[in-house]
Specification:
mainly beta, Lipocalin, single chain, 183 residues, three-stranded antiparallel beta sheet, 14 strands, 56% strand
C-alpha cells in the first residue's frame, strides 16, 4: 500500500458560484479558493486495489479570488462564512471514499471513479466524482470537476440587494491537485 498526500501549496481547488436574478447581469460569478485542506490517497501500486481518498476542508479558510473592491470582497466573504457556510457550527467538510475504480487510458493517464460520502454543513450524503490522474514518478497530478447542489446539504444560497441578485443553488467544484508519495 502506498500513500500520497496532496500538496495544497502546489494545487488549486476552487468552487464557482453563479449569479441569477434581476440584477445578475451586473453581478459576477464568484470563484472561491479552498485554501486550507488536507487530503490523502492510498492504493496498492500498479493494480490500484483498496484505493481510498480522504479530504478534510477547513470551511473558514475559503477566499474570494475575483478582482473586486476590498469592501465588496469582505461583505461577500462575511456572508459566505456567517450565513451560507455557518463556519462557527460547521468548521469542516469531509469526504471519505467508499469505493474507487481506476481505468488505464494510456501509459500516462488514468481515469478514476470515486464513490464515497461527503459530510458538509451537518449533512452526510453519497457523492461521486471522476478524476483524471497522471502518475509522474513520486508524484500524481489529479484533476477534475463535480457539481454540488447547496440545498442538498441544507445550505441556502446567498442573496443580495433584497433578492434581486442571488447565487444559484448549483455550484461547480474544480480541482488540479499535486500529490506527493510518502516514504
Amino acid at each position: 500500500m502506498v500513500q500520497y498526500l496532496i500538496d495544497a501549496t502546489a494545487s488549486r481547488f476552487t468552487v464557482q458560484a453563479f449569479a441569477t436574478g434581476v440584477l445578475s447581469v451586473f453581478g459576477h460569478h464568484p470563484t472561491i479558493g479552498i485554501r486550507d485542506y488536507e487530503a490523502q490517497i492510498q492504493f496498492v501500486p500498479e493494480i490500484f486495489e483498496n484505493a481510498r481518498v480522504h479530504v478534510k476542508v477547513q470551511t473558514s479558510a475559503m477566499e474570494v479570488l475575483d478582482e473586486m473592491k476590498r469592501d465588496d470582497r469582505q461583505k461577500l466573504e462575511q456572508e459566505m462564512f456567517d450565513k451560507v457556510l455557518d463556519v462557527s457550527r460547521f468548521p469542516t467538510a469531509v469526504y471519505e471514499s467508499k469505493e474507487m475504480t481506476v481505468q488505464k487510458l494510456s501509459d500516462t493517464l488514468l481515469q478514476a471513479r470515486v464513490n464515497g460520502e461527503l459530510s458538509f454543513h451537518g449533512v452526510t450524503q453519497a457523492h461521486s466524482f471522476d478524476a483524471r490522474v497522471t502518475p509522474m514518478g513520486t508524484m500524481l497530478r489529479i484533476s477534475g470537476e463535480f457539481p454540488l447542489r447547496q440545498s442538498d446539504y441544507g445550505i441556502k444560497p446567498a442573496s443580495f440587494a433584497g433578492g434581486a441578485l442571488r447565487l444559484k443553488d448549483d455550484v461547480e467544484f474544480k480541482f488540479e491537485l499535486v500529490a506527493r508519495k510518502q516514504e
